[in-house]
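Figure S7 source data.
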Amino acid sequence: MVDERLKRAFAEDVVEMRRAGLHPVVVHGGGPQISALLDRLDLEVRFEAGLRVTTPEIMDVVRMVLAGQVQRELVGLINRHGPLAVGLTGEDAHTMTAERRPAWVNGEPVDIGLVGDVVDVNPETVLALLDRGRIPVVSPVARGGDGQVYNVNADLAAAALAQALGAEKLVVLTDVAGLYANWPDSTEVIDRLTAAELEVLLPGLVSGMLPKMQGCLRAVREGVGSAHVLDGREPHALLRAVLGGPDGHGDGRGTTVVPDREPGRVAT
Ligand SMILES: Nc1ncnc2c1ncn2[C@@H]1O[C@H](COP(=O)(O)OP(=O)(O)O)[C@@H](O)[C@H]1O
Ligand SMILES: CC(=O)N[C@@H](CCC(=O)OP(=O)(O)O)C(=O)O
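C-alpha cells for the predicted adenosine-5'-diphosphate complex:
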C-alpha cells in the first residue's frame, strides 16, 4: 500500500472479484503512512506486541491518515473502474464497537493507550452496500461504548468483520511471503496449518505477525472458511489466491489457515 503500481493492481483485483460475482469487502491498514506523519510532527512511533502505542494526540493522526488519506486513495483507485467503492470507518452506523485492548509483553501488562479490540460488529451497512453492488472500504477505527475513539489493528478489524459477515475467506496482504516458520533465521514459509496448529505457534510470534495470525485464528475459529496471508509485494497476488489455481481455490502461495475440521473432509 505504499507502492503506486501495487496499489493499482490491488484495486484492479478487487474490481475483478466483484465482476466475477464475489462480494469483496476491503479493510485497509496504513501503519507506514501513520508513522511517516508522526515523524514529521515529531510524535513518538512505538509498537508493543505489534500494536501502536496510541496517545490521544496520536489517535487524531491515526484517524486522519486512515480515514482521510489511505481510505480516500483506495476508494479513488477502485472508482477509476466505475462507481463501486464507498468508504466508511468502524464508527459509521456503529459498524464496529471497540473496547480498550490490553497488551502483554513478557507476561507483564503494558499500557498502549487508545488501542481497541472489536467487541461488536453491526454488519448492516456493509451488507446494504454489498447488496447494491458496491465495494465497502473500511478504515480500522472504532468507537467504544464509552464514547472514546480507538485505534484498531487492521488485521484484527478485518477478522472481526469477516466473522460477522460469515465471509468465505479472510485474505491478509503483507510485506513478506507468508508466515515464516523460523523468523528471522529463515524464510521458509509455512504453507498450510490448522487453527489448532496455529494456536500452538501464537505465543512465539512477534511484531506485526502476531495480530495478523491472531486475526486469522479468530476468523477460522468463528466460521470463516479459511484465512490466507499473502505476499502483497507480488502484483495480483490477491486475484490469484481467490480465483486462480487449478481448482479455482487459490494458487497455494502464502500461508493458509484452515479450521480444525474442514467441512466435507472425511476423518481417516
Ligand atoms: N514468523 C514471521 N513470519 C513472517 N514475518 C514475520 C514473522 N514474525 C514477525 N514478522 C514481521 O512481521 C511483518 C509483517 O507485519 P506488519 O509489518 O504489521 O505487516 P502489515 O503492515 O502488512 O500489517 C513482517 O514484515 C516481518 O518483519
Ligand atoms: C493498533 C494499531 O497498531 N493500529 C494500526 C492501524 C493501521 C494498521 O494496522 O496498518 P498496517 O496494516 O499497515 O499495519 C497502526 O496504528 O498502525
